[in-house]
Amino acid sequence: MSTTTLGEATAAAEPASAPPAAPRRSRRRGEQGRAAALASHGVLAGACLIALFPIAWLVFLSLGPDKDDYLHPERIWGKMTFDNYAYVLQHTNFFEWLKSSLIVSLGTTVIGVLVAATTGYAVSRMRFPGYRKLMWILLLTQMFPIAVLIVPMYQILSELQLIDSYLGLILVYCSTAVPYCAWLLKGYFDTIPFEIDEAGRVDGLTPFGTFFRLILPLARPGLAVAAFYSFITAFGEVAFASTFMLSDTKYTFAVGLQSFVSEHDAQRNLMAATAVLIAIPVSAFFYLVQKNLVTGLTAGGTKG
Amino acid sequence: MTVAIDRATGKRRGDRAPRPGLGRRLKHGWQKHWYAYAMIAPVAVVLGVLVLYPLAYGFYLTLTDADSLNSARTIGVNEIEATYKFIGFDNYADILWGETAYERFWSHFIWTVVWTAACVALHYGIGLGLALLLNQKLRGRTFYRLVLVLPWAVPTFVTVFGWRFMLADAGIINSGLDFLGLPAPQWLEDTFWQRFAAIMVNTWCGVPFMMVSLLGGLQSIDASLYEAAEMDGANAWQRFRHVTLPGLRSVSSTVVLLGIIWTFNQFAIIFLLFGNTAPDAQILVTWAYQLGFGQQPREFAQSAAYGMLLLAVLIVFTSFYRRWLNRNEQQLAN
């Protein structure tokens, strides 16, 4: 499937910017001929189909009552039902998992953004001795494969008896969320004109005052992006959550969902229903924030 | 406590008085920069406690023969003390050139490199293609964008299970191939197809990020540059080559680096797609995890040593990448 998309996409890059054919002068820049527009629509529609299908398929399978329906999708048509959803909501640990996921993700988000905000500002505006080292460490932490910290973290947390506790998992996630937020916010603060700081200083504000009264309100979109990223990373993290959460009432969704198949009797229909229930609010949340996403990302990216 | 915003006030180097003694310099530095240090203090503390200390501890563990049988542990009410001993760099030597080092490390290393290169090339190529398409004046552009971002909006651990249903032996993909008269590969059993499936799923998951970032980059390119190029008679390819690509340079170099790091460290997709069933499709990260937590006894020291090696690979790669970028920029400036 991916090979076909590649072919389409690279081929598509050309009609997109291809030289308009005959009636060259009659069109304004950026508009294109009928054929090119049609080709663009064709490729984009194809890409949309590929993007949509696995999720649509999951939704479809979640309506089949039998656990082997994924092998016989045609049988689902006759007996579509929401029974799987009812069962998941009433007879599984769904709400326990929801609680754990929210506690862990929100905890990480709040700590991550709160701790990182002033640092992002400091590295954006001030040049102090050790500045380069700090930037290097922040960058370095983005590169940590989970394999580097998982063993020592496991040992440390078990000594502190924090295995299978929300706090332990939040602390682990903060090790990536904090430097990432600082880095991202630095990029965002860089886009706020320095003149604002100067004006604040002229009016007699301290750097803290400037930061809290002037810059922080202006940086709301950046803060939203940082918060969103921390939330989504913590929410979707698999390795640490699978290893450190032991009791099935404390599972996050990422672990809970696995428990449907790892059991001897793989309940794939229930799993599909759970997956859909998880995906709906998260995607909705994603679309709410995505307006700020592009700005935040490119600001963080280009200035990094 | 005067200047915190050095850049804004434009303090120049030449203004400086002759160098005072160390004590006064420290005092002066503190007075001048204490705002900065106060502001970075929270992150410094968090990094020290949550990153540097575990890192140092992890490095120490790699120099021992720690596993789950000799580490400190609690069984019922009995606390058992750690009994592992210091063995120096034996773990590293064993991983890199011990017996069966090829099966355990190098084969996974090669596959990890192939995996990273293939995935990032596909991410970037498809992402750029779609971004170019979306950057035109086109009906329904917002709609397309919203749909194309979907694979990114849904958590990976959810979609990977969707893919597992599709890739199952009699799942929809094989039914479709069968319907077209094509052979149906065993996606989740055969090594080649496992790897193929992993790259495919990761590509599907990773393209939206590239697309959105590159679209942002494209939108920030000044339209007058295109007009000027068109005025000079540049055709579409030349405009793409000499206006679009250079305009995207800073975004591209960042997203490619991020893409490489993320793909190299990608855990969830392979772990959730195959679990413990596909030893040959494991990249180094999931392999290290398997050593440390996916088997009995748990090889803590070996797993941590893999982690250190992975980090070393990434650091070396990143510093070369940045140096290469800098050199390119200089060449461009000359």
Automatic annotation (TrEMBL), chain A:
CDD domains documented for this protein: TM_PBP2
Claim: Ligase is one of the keywords in the record: no
Phylogenetic lineage: Bacteria, Bacillati, Actinomycetota, Actinomycetes, Kitasatosporales
Name of the protein in question: ABC transporter permease
Annotated region described as Disordered, given as residue ranges: 1-31
Cross-referenced InterPro entries: BP-dep_ABC_trans_perm, MetI-like, MetI-like_sf
Record key words, sorted: Cell membrane, Membrane, Sugar transport, Transmembrane, Transmembrane helix, Transport
GO molecular function: ABC-type maltose transporter activity
From TrEMBL, chain B:
Region Disordered, annotated ranges: 1-20
Segment forming the signal sequence: none
Cell compartments where the protein resides: Cell membrane
GO biological process: transmembrane transport
PANTHER family (alphabetical): ARABINOOLIGOSACCHARIDES TRANSPORT SYSTEM PERMEASE PROTEIN ARAP, BLL4140 PROTEIN
Chain ranges of the ABC transmembrane type-1 domain: 109-321
Record CDD domains: TM_PBP2
Pfam families linked: BPD_transp_1 (PF00528)
Recorded family membership: Belongs to the binding-protein-dependent transport system permease family.
GO annotations of cellular component type: plasma membrane
Membrane topology: Multi-pass membrane protein
Transmembrane spans: 34-60, 109-134, 146-166, 192-215, 255-274, 303-321
Protein name as catalogued: ABC transporter permease
Superkingdom assignment: Bacteria
Keywords annotated in UniProt: Cell membrane, Membrane, Transmembrane, Transmembrane helix, Transport
